[in-house]
Amino acid sequence: MSDLLTQAQTDFAQAVLAGLSQRQKVIPARFFYDRRGSELFEQITAQPEYYPTRTETALLREHSADILRLAGEGRVVVEFGSGSSAKTPLLLKAVRPPIYIPIDISDAYLAEAAQATAKAHPKLRVVPIAGDFTMPLYLGGVIGDAPRLGFFPGSTIGNFGPPAAVDLLRSFAATLGTDSRLVIGIDLRKDPRVIEVAYDDAAGVTAAFNLNLLHRINRELGGTIDVDTFEHRAEWNDGLGRIEMHLVARQDVAFDIAGRRFAMREGETIHTENSYKYRIEEAAILARASGWEPMAVWTDLDRLFSLHVWATAKERIEP
Ligand code: SAH
Ligand code: AVI
User: Fold this and answer.
1) pLDDT at residue 121 tops 70
2) Residues with Cβ < 8 Å from 226, sequence gap 6 or more?
3) What are phi and psi of 190, to 5 degrees?
4) What is the pTM of this model?
């Protein structure tokens, strides 16, 4: 008998083994999103403490006519980290694209979400791409040189540190090409207490989302982790302007993953996610540093969240 491993499985194994071998143990946040992780994220978005989703959805609804004015009708929409595509209908209604390309690492979940979007929009061609959006993509084979509108909602950009965020946005500019537009949601700096409860809701859904990573390791990598010996922690890091999620060992623990033994002391943590929060001015700097020109920005009255329209900057030739 032979076992066939997919690239995704070997990537996961490699990242977990490397991350747990560091002094501060770390697992990259993109590995949250197996099917169960995607379902739990969807439940997070409905928690009363998790303000980003409802605030951004309201901004998209309120400004759909402005988005149409700035982006024009009929561009191909390319969504990065589309998840359930719950916010997408608002954009589709505004700009009426001929083609919608959702990109997500959570493959089974993406396939179902794409099917549901196609069913709800019979005239729309839906072309899902399962994979890592940090890798450059060539879309010409699917859409030729049709004009493009990128969509990057949810403040997923916040899950990358500023240098990685600049690289990612540069890569989006390359994928989308000249004279493109990007509608991007960016969560704002605010009272840390508001942020901390958003990442530690009373119903325990964010805790379950974080702990699911350990269940995923047990399921997919033959791990022997006793998940009950870990707890969820969300902590605001003021110096770095980010909320951090960790999995904290409640006692001394030892476990095996893919045949390797790991041990952790009581109180030691695995760092699983950063979610950076920006000031409006910083968001504009992020745009300009990564080959984009800000066109418009809107926020809610409480200044919780921001929605931006950017255009790919004309190439600047400097002496
Ligand atoms: N856009 C949705 C979902 C945000 S959750 C919203 O605004 O609510 C983040 C999504 O990005 C998840 O669906 C996750 O599977 C996907 N994702 C995270 N890292 C990714 C990566 N490196 N490549 C592709 N998709 C990724
Ligand atoms: C997908 N991403 C933008 C979410 C965030 O807010 O950083 C993921 C999340 N983590 C905990 N709750 C939500």
Assistant:
1) yes
2) 253, 255
3) -160, -175
4) 0.96
